[in-house]
Amino acid sequence: MTDTVSTARSEDLFAEAQGLMPGGVSSPVRAFKSVSGVPRFIERGEGPYLVDVDGNRYIDYVLSFGPLLLGHAPDAVTQAITEQAAKGTSYGAPSPLEVRLAHQIQDRYPSMERLRFVNSGTEGAMSAVRAARAFTGRNKVVKFDGHYHGHADLLLAKAGSGVATLGLPDSPGVPAAVTADTLVIPFNDEAAVREVFEREGSEIAALLVEPIAGNMGLVRPRDGYLQMLREVTETHGALLVFDEVMVGFRVHPGGAQALYDVTPDLTVLGKVIGGGLPVGAYGGRADVMKLVAPDGPVYQAGTLSGNPLAMAAGLALLGEVDATGAWEAAAEAARTTAEAVQSAADAAGVPVVTDAVGTMFGFFFNDRSLFSFEDVQTSDKAAFSRLHGLLLERRVYLPPSPFEACFTSSAHTPDVVETAAEAFQSAFAAL
Ligand SMILES: *Cc1c(COP(=O)(O)O)cnc(C)c1O
């Protein structure tokens, strides 16, 4: 499968799109700035595959950056969306679907005693911070270098993949005053946490963390690290916010909080819970969430929030995961794909470290385990870019950045992974 991949129609569309939209895309990483070649314009998704407008079919390890735990267009989700669309796409009023999805989420995330649906992870993280600030009466927020919590102004400081990949240390248009209360420290560094809380603990409203980092490549917390965050935040009366927008439902059905048995005060979700439609949620302790309007004075609203199409899609996805071994199948695919990457790299004598957690995996062109954003930056970005191109020629689609995690679905059956494994062998050999 190394015959030439034609990209003529994608090239035409990309040229046209660049005259219409910044970079020709609706979200920056999609523009392929850190890899070679033209972004593929997608005609359709089918199970584990993306099919582009030139008719090339790729095994997809991006899956819309996480949501598609059942692969593209699974029957259960398509049917739920279709049936719901016929009953209306938005009501501007509550629906039973929200109640059902809230139950489904709470069953798996019991720390979310109350939750609010929003339209994106960005909104969820931004709103969680607002609630935390209101609850504590404090302004400062601690986040980790390389962790991404969406593009709300105050959280757009040292924010991982998209930002890192484009080499923007920060973003113009974000007033210094807005990030002045955002304190950024390195991930997996216990001393840095203790130090910032000893210095400013009485002013810190919340600490936000991607409990398993996924927006600087896949980076696990060190043993006991999340427990330490729990203890330090509690000691200082700050809220611990787990941003599980990416890892929720993926690293474990109950998220990183179940996997590591750490209970955050607030949790942010997105991606998987919308079954591929735009959605987010935030929630947690009832005493914090009761401050949110209309129970309390903290304003937060949304015309399309709790959107019935998104709720129906999320419910269908989670229902299918419950009724079948879909999560286990996706996790098996993540494990075997990571093994395939490692063995292909080893055979080619290329230093690569791989990891898989649940239904996600990642790898770095590096020769040691990595724990922080500074660490991951020592990886060979040029090698990743070359590998990315070689894999596209072999019909395997990886995230177009060395600092994004990879995702699997239940549609990534053993024979699909076997096909990908052959492509990895051949691509690493050609590096
Ligand atoms: C994707 C992501 C977000 C932002 O979600 P959007 O729906 O893209 O706004 C926030 N936090 C994390 C950890 C994410 O991976």
Strands, total number: 14
Cross-sheet strand order for the largest sheet: 4-10-9-8-7-5-6
Overall geometry: globular
The CATH architecture name of the largest domain reads 3-Layer(aba) Sandwich
List the helices and strands and how they pair.
Elements: H1 8-18, E1 42-46, E2 49-52, E3 57-60, H2 75-86, H3 96-108, E4 114-118, H4 121-136, E5 140-144, H5 161-165, H6 176-179, E6 182-185, H7 190-200, E7 204-209, H8 225-235, E8 239-243, H9 255-259, E9 266-270, E10 280-284, H10 286-289, H11 308-323, H12 326-348, E11 353-357, E12 360-364, H13 373-376, H14 381-393, E13 396-397, E14 406-407, H15 414-430
Parallel strand pairs: 3-13, 5-6, 5-7, 7-8, 8-9
Antiparallel strand pairs: 1-2, 2-3, 4-10, 9-10, 11-12, 12-14
Helix pairs in contact: 2-11, 3-11, 7-8, 12-15
Bound molecules: pyridoxal-5'-phosphate.
Characterize this entry briefly.
The chain has helices at residues 8-18, 75-86, 96-108, 121-136, 161-165, 176-179, 190-200, 225-235, 255-259, 286-289, 308-323, 326-348, 373-376, 381-393, 414-430, and strands at residues 42-46, 49-52, 57-60, 114-118, 140-144, 182-185, 204-209, 239-243, 266-270, 280-284, 353-357, 360-364, 396-397, 406-407.
What does the model show?
With 431 residues, the protein is an alpha/beta fold. The protein has a seven-stranded mixed sheet with strand order 4-10-9-8-7-5-6, with helices on both faces. It is globular. The model has no long low-confidence stretch (mean pLDDT 95). The chain has helices spanning 8-18, 75-86, 96-108, 121-136, 161-165, 176-179, 190-200, 225-235, 255-259, 286-289, 308-323, 326-348, 373-376, 381-393, 414-430; strands spanning 42-46, 49-52, 57-60, 114-118, 140-144, 182-185, 204-209, 239-243, 266-270, 280-284, 353-357, 360-364, 396-397, 406-407. It has 15 helices and 14 strands. It has two domains: 8-12 and 42-73 and 325-413 and 423-430, Alpha-Beta Complex (Aspartate Aminotransferase, domain 1), CATH 3.90.1150; 75-322, Type I PLP-dependent aspartate aminotransferase-like (Major domain) (Aspartate Aminotransferase, domain 2), CATH 3.40.640.10. Helix 3 (96-108) crosses helix 11 and helix 7 packs parallel to helix 8 (225-235). Bound molecules: pyridoxal-5'-phosphate. The site of pyridoxal-5'-phosphate has 15 residues, from helix 4.
